[in-house]
Write a structure and sequence with these properties.
Layout lengths: L23 H5 L25 H4 L5 H4 L1 E4 L3 E5 L9 E5 L11 H22 L3 E5 L16 E6 L7 H6 L3 H19 L9
Antiparallel strand pairs: 1-2, 2-3, 3-5, 4-5
Helix pairs in contact: 4-6
Bound molecules: zinc ion (ZN).
Zinc ion (ZN) binds next to helix 2.
């Protein structure tokens, strides 16, 4: 974090400059944090130009461009471009379905297994003190992309609420995301090289 700090900017760990936000648990699951998928090129929130679902589009790109950390047989792990916290991953089925009840048994198994694998990867890469894991299913429940199921895997560290909103706004986030993806991808492959289910 220090390297991306311009002269005169306060330190991100300075509690005087950045008082902790209120109700951080509320903040963690507010759906407006997912609006990045609806931003246009100027950064304004709008309807997507392309009708293509971002979780269908992501796996069609390279791992680097799509921020893909791991590709399974039925599901994949993708970095959240606007994370709730540093290292926020999402587990998605390749198939465009909205609810966990839409998954078949193989998809469901790999979906949940990949979630535990993501935790193991995070333990190795960044040693979190805890996690928030969950799915917002349906727009009414706060899903930003309700049509395509995604499970959030958010690492937490003691005291992270003090810097979380700052990190989310820093200009160096794209670099952090790229580095984080690479670290995760290396750990996914090393820790579970034969994890993928055989294709049906
Ligand atoms: Zn989709």
């Amino acid at each position: 974090m220090e390297s991306g700090r311009a002269a005169g900017e306060p330190r991100v760990d300075d509690p005087e400059a950045f008082p902790p936000p209120e109700d951080t648990v509320e903040r963690l699951w507010t759906p407006q944090r997912m609006t990045y998928v609806l931003r246009n090129d100027e950064g304004r929130v709008t309807k997507p130009k392309s009708k293509e679902c971002p979780f269908c589009a992501g796996p069609k790109k390279s791992d680097e461009d799509g921020l893909i950390a791991w590709r399974g047989t039925h599901v994949f792990a993708i970095m959240n471009l606007y994370p709730y916290n540093v290292g926020h991953l999402m587990i998605c089925p390749y198939r465009h379905v909205g609810l966990i009840t839409d998954l078949d048994d193989d998809e469901l198994f790999e979906f949940e297994k990949a979630t535990t694998l993501a935790m193991t990867v995070m333990k190795e890469v960044s040693r979190p003190d805890g996690w928030n894991i969950g799915i917002n299913q349906g727009e009414v429940a706060g899903a930003g992309v309700a049509a395509h199921l995604h499970q959030h895997v958010v690492p937490r560290w003691n005291g992270d609420a003090n810097f979380m909103p700052i990190v989310a706004q820093t200009r160096t986030m794209p670099i952090l995301l790229s580095d984080q993806r690479a670290a995760y991808a290396e750990a996914f492959e090393r820790l579970a090289p034969d994890f993928r289910l055989p294709a049906a």
